[in-house]
């Protein structure tokens, strides 16, 4: 079987520009959650806090002609991708690699800000004209398309949509193509920004959003905190990476996916456990070999105990020795980009032998009874890690990563 | 005479739970009535639309508390709305 490795990563998040500031914040348990910067300061919102980009100036990255084509999701995704490609040092122009490189980018809702701007013109101002580039800004495949254009990669390219599991599903689609021999390299990841007024109102109406901060797995948790951001990775076959002498960050050892086929929003321990088990089987990992799980850990009343039960179901007695943390207390819940931001935590744990903590943790909840690495990072060598993503709609996608030394 | 707040709230709960309105008592919880959490947030939404109020996020705990708790929260929100009626500039 063709093995798959990660050779480049890039990110943009509330923690700053780049994968490194994000990893540092996750490692330090330093929360980037702050008072919400509202899209409409006159509107009274129940949502009080969020994890939004603070120092992102699109005009520093794109000229005006290019900017006109891009929703915020496309902008963020391109910036993250440039970082990932630069780190990988990969030249798509060599030896026909461009045609053998896939681009798969996940997003939960696509170009929400672009859609909202035009919606406001139509409904709010009664305008009969909307911007002619509205469609190309808001289509959910736009980020994948812009990456293919930016880097001139001509292999299979498309968007992937599975709400909060979009990033992990995107990584898996590309990984399956790499394994099958369809491609030799891939640009993968996720991007999301849905801080429009209707978007915020819709999240408020679901009553799953915390008004204080995000406190995964602890007794005082009050829900998720909405975030924006993007993460992009360069995947290659091990053979391809070795042939060009690339620095390997980690091996993508396996993956698992499942559908709860039950409730549209209430999570299922069985569905999550099925995806976790599938990832272990696919990677050829025994449960005992896994040392750390970057949990989905949204801090909603429903997710955290359900995910805890799923982990216990799969790992049995080893669950007692397993470190599990959610980094969402640091970077918030970036929905379709969540898995991409959290993959940086999984890679960081493997590379630096440091397990990032669950930030903002107060008191233990009896329904959440695993080792969540509360508040302080732990120096611990682990050889294999999992990254969980579970979505509304009952869609689950789990990645298994392994240290790559040979 | 207008229906009481309690009668109106119970009617909304009964419609969503597909139960007879007589089955809803002040002590019933949404769980007793077999109402799932997604339906619970729809009930809150309908109550907000019906009374033109905004309900707090987690007080009461709509999944676990009784129908009486919901009625109390609606009455509180209605009182707050009356107090705030002079503040005509406020947006919902």
From TrEMBL, chain A:
UniProt keyword Cytoplasm present: no
Top-level taxon: Bacteria
Coiled-coil stretches noted in the UniProt entry, renumbered to this chain: none
Keyword Cell membrane belongs to the record: yes
GO molecular function: 3-oxoacyl-[acyl-carrier-protein] synthase activity
Keyword annotations from UniProtKB, A to Z: Cell inner membrane, Cell membrane, Membrane, Nodulation, Transferase, Transmembrane, Transmembrane helix
Pathway membership, UniProt: Lipid metabolism; fatty acid biosynthesis
Chain segments annotated as transmembrane: none
SUPFAM superfamilies to which the protein is assigned, alphabetical: Thiolase-like
GO biological processes: fatty acid biosynthetic process
Domain Ketosynthase family 3 (KS3), residue spans: 1-403
Localization in the cell: Cell inner membrane
GO CC annotation terms, alphabetical: plasma membrane
Signal sequence coordinates: none
Role of this protein: Proposed to synthesize NOD factor fatty acyl chain. Involved in the synthesis of a highly unsaturated fatty acid moiety, which forms part of a lipo-oligosaccharide that is responsible for host specificity.
Family of the protein in this entry: Belongs to the thiolase-like superfamily. Beta-ketoacyl-ACP synthases family.
Protein name: Nodulation protein E
Species of provenance: Oleiagrimonas citrea
TrEMBL record, chain B:
Any one Pfam family match given in the protein's UniProt record, by short name: PP-binding
SUPFAM superfamilies: ACP-like
Entry superkingdom: Bacteria
Domain Carrier, residue spans: 3-78
Name of the protein in its database record: Acyl carrier protein
Originating species: Oleiagrimonas citrea
Classification lineage: Bacteria, Pseudomonadati, Pseudomonadota, Gammaproteobacteria, Lysobacterales
